[in-house]
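Hey, sorry to bother you again with one of my protein questions. I've been puzzling over a protein and I'd love to understand its fold better. Take your time with it, there's no hurry, and the full record follows here:
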Amino acid sequence: MNPEVTVTVSDTGAKTSVFTPYVSSSISYIRNDDPNMIFGDDGVDDDLGGFTYSPFQIRTKSEDETTVSKGQLKATLEKLDQLLLASKASSSDAYSKENVDSLFERITKEHAENATKMNTTVLEYADVCKSTTEKVDKLIVETTTFMENYIPTYNNNTASANEAIQNLGAMFKTEKINLKKIRTGFQQDHTSFQTSFTSKITKLQDDLAMENKVMDALAKKTEKVKVLDQKLKHTEQYVKDLLFERAIVRSCITDVTSLLSDIIETRDLMISIMARDAELNETQRIMKEAEEKERAEKEAQDSQLDLLITPKAFRFRAFVKVANAPFTDSSADQMLFSFYLKHMKPQYETWSAHNIVAVKDGSLDVDIAIVLKKKLTVVPKEAPKDFEKLKP
C-alpha cells in the first residue's frame, strides 16, 4: 500500500491566526477507512463536543496515482472475477493480445475516470475547508474580542457577586440566628401546645369514659323505665278492668238493691194486708162478742137506762203505691191490685201493732214466695183465705 500523505491547512493556501489562551475540547479521531468523514464527524449523536476543526487528510501521492475507494476496488475485482469465470468456462478459447489490451485499456480508463472524480471531490473539499477555516478564524477573532470585553465585566460582576454573597451571608447569618430563636420559641410553643393538647385529650377521654358510663347507666334506667312503663300499662289495664268490674258489680248491686227494695215493699204490703185482715177478723169477733154480751145484758136488765157510747177511733189505710215485682206478669199485678182494693177496711189503731206482731209468727218466705210465684213452705197462723188465690 502507498504511504499516507497529510495535508495541513497551510498547504491549501488559507490564512491562519494564533490564539493560545483558547483551549478546545479533544479532537475526535478521524477514521482513515471512511472517505466520507469530514470535520471529525464520527456519526455518534451523543458526542457533540468532538465536532471540532481538524486538518484534512488526502490519500494520494500525485495527481496520477490517487487512492481508490473500497467500492470502486470492489467493483473492479468483481469484473475481474467475472472475466476469470468466463475464461474457465471457455478454456479452449485463448485470449488474443487485442482482447487483453482492450480489457486493460477499459480498466485503465475507468480507473482514470474514478481518479478524476476523486480529484474533483478533493478540490471541492479543499474549498470547503478553506471557507470553513476563514469562518473559524473570524469566529475566533469575534470570540477573542468578546472575551476581552467580557473579562472586565466578568471581574466586575464577580466582585459585585462576591460582595452580594458576603452581604447575603451576613444577612443569612442574622436570619439564621433569628430563625434559631424562632425555632426555639416554636419548640417551646410546640411543647406547651403538645402538653396542653395531651392534657385536653386525656380530659376528653375521661369525659368520654364518664359519658359512656352515664350512657350505660341511662340505658339501664331506660330499660327499667320501659319495664316499669309496661308494668304500669298492665296495671292501668288491670285497674280499668277492676273499675269495669266494679261498675258491673255496682250495677248488679243497684239492681239487687232495687230488687230487694221492691221485695221489701211487697213484703210490707203483704204484712199490712195480713195485719188488716187479722184486725178485721178480731174486730168482727169482738163486735160479735160485744153484741152477744149486750144482748145478754139487755135481756137481763130491761129497765136499765141507756149509757153514753164513746166512739172508738178508727183509721183507714189506703194503699196508693203498687210495688214493682221482679217479673212482667200483668195478671199477678192485677190480682194484687184487686186484693188491695178488696181489703181496704177500717181497723183499730190501738190494736194494729199487736195484731201485726201476732201475724209475724210465720216465715218471710210467704210474702216473697207470693210475689215470686213460688210454692209456700210455711203457712202463717191465721192466714186469710184470700191468700189461697195467690198460690201458684
